[in-house]
């Protein structure tokens, strides 16, 4: 009789322990926010942000990781300063093949593969007045500055090319200029 009572007690205890079990939710949550996060709608106003704004502006003077600011302004005086004094930093190594590859991707469509100003867009008269490098008085600093900010009809390529890549293209443009003479 004692064994039957023990078996019934064990069955009752196991029935009691499993009766609250729900497969869709854990029984006890140690960190409930991990299971049921607070939802935020994208671009929505929320009380978390001061004044109920959509988000916060980065602190003034912050620079994104891996970005080096270019201090010369986008003005005619800045162009003249870059042309006269800007030199490639010593820590940037030049890879001529990479410079040629980048030039052919981003520049040759207008400037031509030889730098003669006869790229496909210039031939089809989509852009008029694309300069021939042999007619220009350019330096590596002026080329870097123009790639960074753009000039006349040419837009900035700073978003497409990193600082190192812009220096490689500038070096390759100088090689093309030397070959055109």
Automatic annotation (TrEMBL):
UniProt keyword Metal-binding, yes or no: yes
Keyword Ribonucleoprotein: no
Record domain Cytochrome c: where: 94-177
Keywords: Heme, Iron, Metal-binding, Signal
UniProt superkingdom: Bacteria
A molecular-function term among this protein's GO annotations: electron transfer activity
Signal peptide: 1-22
Identification of the protein by name: Alternative complex III, protein E
């Amino acid at each position: 009789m004692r064994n039957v009572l023990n078996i019934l007690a064990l069955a009752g205890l196991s029935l009691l322990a499993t009766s609250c079990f729900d497969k869709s939710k854990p029984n006890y949550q140690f960190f409930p926010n991990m299971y049921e996060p607070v939802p935020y709608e994208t671009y929505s106003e929320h009380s978390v942000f001061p004044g109920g704004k959509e988000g916060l502006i980065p602190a003034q003077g912050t620079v994104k990781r891996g970005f080096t600011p270019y201090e010369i302004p986008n003005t005619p005086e800045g162009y003249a300063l870059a042309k006269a004094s800007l030199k490639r930093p010593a820590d940037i190594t030049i890879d001529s093949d990479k410079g040629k590859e980048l030039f052919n991707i981003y520049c040759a469509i207008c400037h031509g593969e030889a730098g003669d100003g006869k790229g496909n867009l210039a031939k089809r008269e989509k852009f008029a007045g694309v300069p021939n490098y042999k007619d220009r008085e350019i330096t590596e600093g002026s080329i870097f500055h123009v790639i960074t900010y753009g000039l006349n009809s040419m837009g900035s390529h700073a978003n497409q090319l990193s600082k190192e890549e812009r220096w490689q293209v500038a070096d390759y443009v100088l090689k093309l200029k030397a070959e055109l003479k």
